[in-house]
Amino acid sequence: MFLLNRHPDHRRPLTEEDAATLGLAEAAEAERFLAARDNRAETPLHALPALAGELGIGALHIKDEGKRLGLGSFKALGGAYAVMHLVLEEAARRLGRVVDVAELHSHEVKAVAAGMTFACATDGNHGRSVAQGAGLVGARSIIFVHSGVSDERVAAIARFGAEMVRIAGDYDQSVREAARVADERGWTVVSDTSWPGYERIPGLVMQGYTVIVREALKRLAQPPTHVFLQAGVGGFAAAVAGHLAIVLGEDRPKAVVVEPARAACLYETAKAGRPVAIEHSKPTVMAMLECYEPSLVAWRVLSRIGDAFMTVDEEDAVAVMNRLARPSGDDPAIVSGESGGAGLAGLIRAAGDRKMRAALGLDTASRVLIVNSEGATDPGRYAELVGMAPDEVTREKQPA
């Protein structure tokens, strides 16, 4: 399915609130917080000229978030950043002065953090980030997971000291349960989706993601003309597209939002012209994108700067995992999890369709940016779908 954005707000400026959340000062702050963390190395930006040639475009770059902060996903930038921010704010309130990120590990701040509990729902990656952030500052974390989250992903979160709560149902039900229990017990919810009356903390999570854009633009000789962004509730797509629009203005790339056909809440929202919750379908292999209600903040941004919305099928996602693991020519091998390559799957589908190419202006001069949003966060599942273990993939393309 493919849909150009016909919303009345399309191409209108971001709201003042969203422009502030995703603006230059806030992005610089996110980078400053990142600098205070261990394992903070910039993630690589890969050029894939062979694949670009096959797709009939001028250039293709993939920002690989598969090793971000040792968590295996771009979400390492969001939940942990929000937790750190909230702890410093609470410390400032109690101490009666501004508290800088450089004081994060001070006795005074640690004492404040020790009395705080952070909760969230997750498909896997966001919960790992919140748990890591809580562990970093010495706070408690309670992570809610639904029945579809694999035991491997649950164990990966628990390794950061989180208390795990498994519930029946899907992601959206786990979001509601986390919010309900947190409200009863006085915990702070750090969600990557938003709802009426709850926007600021998801905005902080999105703020963390702007680091991806800042790093990519520093490495690109020319800014991209197109960006294909995978979406679950839409926070990642909105953050990346929104910051690109703020930095590049009229020269911003066309932003294409890509979702699994089995969980296309933003596509249906764009079609309806307003936020809608969709009916649950069969589980998708793109488990990190299996969401049935959009984030209100994300939709507010994407209604303005999302230029098109499209879906990809199960086999498209698996094909991309295999294509990146076994590249052509001198393209690098990239380990991409089930959800990580959905943006690329969208590009491949669009590039192969005459009408979509024309609608998006994809041609031999196009410069496309993709974000591989996760590595093999479930190594067993990755090996099953690709036929190689993650370390075999990267080893095969190393020079002799």
UniProtKB/TrEMBL annotation:
Keywords: Lyase, Pyridoxal phosphate. The keyword Lyase applies. Residues 40-372 form the Tryptophan synthase beta chain-like PALP domain. SUPFAM superfamilies: Tryptophan synthase beta subunit-like PLP-dependent enzymes. It is an enzyme of class 4 (lyase). The keyword Chaperone does not apply. InterPro entries: DiNH2opropionate_NH3_lyase, TrpB-like_PALP, TrpB-like_PALP_sf. Its EC number is 4.3.1.15. GO terms for molecular function: diaminopropionate ammonia-lyase activity; pyridoxal phosphate binding. Its cofactor is pyridoxal 5'-phosphate. It comes from the Bacteria. NCBIfam families: diampropi_NH3ly, PRK08206.1. This is Diaminopropionate ammonia-lyase.
